[in-house]
Amino acid sequence: MTSNDNQATKIVKGIKNSNPIQRNSIESLLNRSIKFRKSRHVDQKLELFKQKFVPVNETTGVVFASTGSSYSTAEEDSIASKIDEHGFESPSKMLYSPDKLNFSWLSILPIGPGLKDLGQLSSLNAVLQVITYTPVLANYFLQRRHSANCTMQEYCFACAVEEHVRTALNGTTYALQPRVFVGKLKQIKNGSTKDAYDVWKYFMNQIQSSLLAEKGSKDELIQQTTALCQTFGGYIQNAFECLSCNKMENKYDFFMDLSLDLLQCSSLERCMTKYFKEQAIATMECPNCQREVELKGKKSVYRSPRTLAIQLRRFNTNSGVKINKDIKFESSLDLSRVITNSEKDHIKSKYDLYAIIAHTGESLFNGHYVAYVKGPNSIWYCMDNEVVQQVSVNRLLSEKAYMLFYTIPPEPVKREKRLPVTNTIKDIPVEGLKEEEPKEPTVQEEEELVTFKEEDNEEEEKQVEYERLKAALEEASKKEKVENQSAIVVSHNERMKSKRDKLEALIEKESVVSKSLEVKSVLLSKHTDSQFQDDINTWDEDIGTSVEDQRKSVLKQIKSKRKKVDAYDLEYDRGKVKKVKKKQDDKFHKPNMFQITADKKLNKKKGK
């Protein structure tokens, strides 16, 4: 008999086994340590009770039983501190610290090249240009923060994006071909490659999966702390209220972008206000009523993202027809209206525009995408596939945007200038120096410290100069271009009458304003009989006729008569002429002279 059969017979007969397998025995249950943690649901009555009474002996954490518990009060305090008074739970750890991210350009780089359209994929080119000129992502990829720690043996999407960004910002002048991403777009399941928003979501999901492969976690809250989620991620609070007991319950949703409706809206702010005025409806169990009820809640931003991506829903989900209406947007955005009241003083709400994606066409399947990005030099550029051209802010704000990208402006760095270090050794008397001769190395160390501080001062001055130049460039880019109002401009599509009127006005203006007549009169008034073609003052005020005649005779000898221009002079004055090879005459397609004479003779005979 096998061992399994022996064990089965012992269990049937009731014979005790020497090593019984009892997972839920009394001893195991009693000796098991029980770990307590703070509830995620906030008890409003308890909170009011705490505000009303002050405890006599302040205690931190949870009081445990006297049984041997391995769960310390410090660990309990750390878990309790991760859930705030509004029920928002913070992750236990971060995969990437937000302090390592730089949300402003570290250096002024030249604008990159355009992208070739490989199979009517202007949506892909627009999304790639926005990712390239997102300052925080550009700094992250330029510093190789991902590829230096990437452990994927096969294809890595984040590494491919990093290589593209580095190539684009490396100063290349020729248009790039994003062949690496064209084949990957076929993997889009829920969406179309014709929609730039679907391509954007696909890129975000693929980069997020690559970052999680580097440092993964099964906890959903920890997964929302990658470098990408720290950039575009935020939280929306849904404050639900039970209609029967009026008890509040907060739920939090993580978001990477906002998709706004355009109906009955004329501006971006109205679209945002309408989105957050819509009541969130959910069916859940009320902890106070102890039954499942329908709750209605109000939405608000509890944690604002550092970089905000917004989609304006311009396409019909069924037919793909475009809503071709103007939505007003500004170069700055303030979210203070839609932020949770308790968090308005703690989080930033002002954003600056740094990129948009515009769509031209009448439908989703018949159109073209163009990206407008703000370069590292604070100048706006239009990225239309291979074409890259500078544009003004007025033209940017007149576009019919499909996606908008805002970022929180970095705070200006205030640096205090250090006072120059003075050498205190000069005030010491000579006798004191003689007695302290062995302490010469300390003097050298102080001199070295002084030199290091002088170098720090130079670096600070360079940094201040760089910030001043950057501020001047931003101010110059915001100024409107001033056109000459007095200039007479003739368009090619004007009528002939308006062109003639403008020509007469131009002639009249030239006769009044132009200085050509004055210059001509000055040139004609000059003496031609002088040696230097100009009036020259003489030493003597009164000159006799004999001296004047003698001067004229000398000038005639000096200024010889002009020679007649010959063929060589004409050739030299004409300059280099391109020689065109004369083609030989085609002798076969010319009329035959013998045939012509024969025809003439024949016609004469017929005439007789």
TrEMBL record:
Biased composition (Acidic residues): 443-461
GO molecular function, one term: cysteine-type deubiquitinase activity
Gene Ontology CC terms: cytosol; nucleus
InterPro entries reported in the protein's UniProt record: Papain-like_cys_pep_sf (IPR038765), Peptidase_C19 (IPR050164), Peptidase_C19_UCH (IPR001394), USP (IPR028889), USP_CS (IPR018200)
Thylakoid listed as a keyword: no
Biological-process GO terms, alphabetical: protein deubiquitination; proteolysis
Domain USP: 113-409
Keywords: Hydrolase, Protease, Thiol protease, Ubl conjugation pathway
EC number: 3.4.19.12
Region (Disordered): 435-461
Catalytic function, reaction form: Thiol-dependent hydrolysis of ester, thioester, amide, peptide and isopeptide bonds formed by the C-terminal Gly of ubiquitin (a 76-residue protein attached to proteins as an intracellular targeting signal)
Family: Belongs to the peptidase C19 family.
PANTHER family: UBIQUITIN CARBOXYL-TERMINAL HYDROLASE, UBIQUITIN CARBOXYL-TERMINAL HYDROLASE 36
Protein name: ubiquitinyl hydrolase 1
Native source species: Rhizopus microsporus ATCC 52813
